[in-house]
Amino acid sequence: QVQLVESGGGLVQAGGSLLLSCAASESIFSFSAMGWYRQVPGRQRELVADITSGGSTNYADSVKGRFTISRDNAKNTVYLQMNSLKPEDTAVYYCNGQSRKFPFRRYWGQGTQVTVSS
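Above: the chain sequence. Below: its structure as tokens.
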């Protein structure tokens, strides 16, 4: 059973930084892409950033220039560096992995809370 475990969330003041980590229980090369999503109560889960196995990245417009997604293949870990945080970044952040193997399942972590105070 594939597991994704997030860490690094917490409470930070506006303008501060946090580093989220997502550790996979198997090689991240088994995923065609990995990403970070976030969700606030009453709203749909939204993509924050993702990265392919080839290293191509994609960001939501709201985080471009502030957040950076990266991967450490040796550690089977994906990171989300979040700088210049705003109160509207407050959400539960989820790690996601799209499997390369049939049936190409999407795996989710348990989520980590990020709270940005004004």
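The CA atoms of residues 72 and 117 lie 30 Å apart.
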